[in-house]
Amino acid sequence: MFYAFQLGHQPKISLAEIKTVFLSKKIDFTIKTTQQNYLIIQTKKKLNSTELIKQLGGTIKICSEIKSDKNNFLKSIKEHLFNVQPEGKIQFSFPDKKMGLEIKKELKNNGRSARYIEPKNSATIIHNHLIEKKGDLNIIAEHLFMTEAVQQFEEMSQRDYDRPGIDDKSGMLPPKLAKIMINLALSQNIDYKKNLLDPFCGSGTILTEAAVMGYQNLYGSDISEKAITDTKKNLDWIIKNYNLKNIQYHLNQINVIKLSQSLDNNSLDLIITEPYLGKQLHGNESNVYLTKQSEELKNLYLQAFEQFQKILKPNGIIVIAIPQFKTKSDWIKIDCIDKIKNIGFEIIPFNNENYLLYHRPNQHLGRGIWRFKKI
Question: Phi-psi category of 181—alpha, beta or left, where left has phi over 0 and alpha has psi -120 to 50?
């Protein structure tokens, strides 16, 4: 079977997440091509697209192939819509408006009233119930696809903006990225009872996303009293709103460089975190300023990794966002990777790359997503 995954605005990260999740679920697949920001794969077994889209943070929608006549897609689309919507007005969408109107005309010529819906975004598909009607269609890489599942953007937006504990001043990790980072830590032996720590928990985005994803033993720490208060509010809110069971969480206000004083050695399986990224940037900072900030963060991170080495179990995994700062001509990066390896960690690369860059063109800060294993 062929499937098309519409990747998010960071396609390399989306691809790495899909590969990791599929490996953890023991799903065999072959990548056929990438086209129009879609990843086309082939599998031997049918995928549960509805469940997959709930787990993936970097995929916008998942589509399955419809058998079609590649010499006459118009005929294949018409026959498909007749079969899946046998009564009433046919409702469908297609990204090419010109062809969409042509499809509508063909349906009318065959005695069926039809409504063409221009798919401007995921909300259009969801609010017009096009997934249930099997009516969101597209032609990608000479295959006809039907959308089976769309990212739950409204739920993620609610978890982002409606939660009770928010601190705009310290910045907030997007829930999508938190979900991706958690997924990137998966192995073939999925155990949602593993002990997961965010040692820079902020308002608790990583911990709340982990709770929604099924993790049951959550640990959070931060130097800020407000961060711990906000995280507690948000965890209690998510547990209640999603009716989550068997969640145990432990929060502690402590400086990360003293973390081993509050946690047992070799006690944690996973550390997923976005650490303190430095002072907020406005784009007019000098290279001297950014270099100085990089050195300060380097010292903090190395002290943190010394603590992580003590509290992680052997083969424990860390997924961490290490910042880099955009200048007019280049990036200023934090030179800490070799020293992290010397502390007792090895890099687990993504798609033959040591790290993945999460960055939007208009931002002055990029997040390098790194994955380490304790050795």
Answer: alpha
Is the per-residue pLDDT at 171 higher than 70? no
Within 10 angstroms of residue 366's Cβ, the number of other Cβ atoms is 18
Q: Which of 177, 168, 175 is nearest to 367 (CA)?
A: 177
Q: Where are the alpha helices (DSSP H) in the chain?
A: 11-24, 49-55, 73-84, 97-109, 122-127, 153-161, 175-184, 205-213, 225-241, 287-311, 337-344
Q: Could you tell me the CA-to-CA distances from 56 to 84, 149, 327, 370 in Å, in that order?
A: 27, 11, 32, 18
* Residue carrying structure tokens 């380097």: 298
**Residue 46, number of CB atoms within 10 A of its CB:** 9
Pairing mode of beta strands 195-198, 268-273: parallel
84 burial level (CB within 10 Å; 0-12, 13-18, 19+): middle
Query: Which residues lie across from 5 on neighbouring strands?
Result: 39, 62
CA distance 139 to 162: 37
Quote the pTM value: 0.95
DSSP state of 142: T
Give Rg (Cα) of the chain: 23
> What is the token pair recorded at 285?
């900072």
Q: Which residues, 6 or more positions from 82, have their beta carbon under 8 angstroms from its beta carbon?
A: 90, 110, 112
| pLDDT tens-digit map of 13-55 | 999 999 999 999 999 999 999 998 999 999 999 999 999 999 9
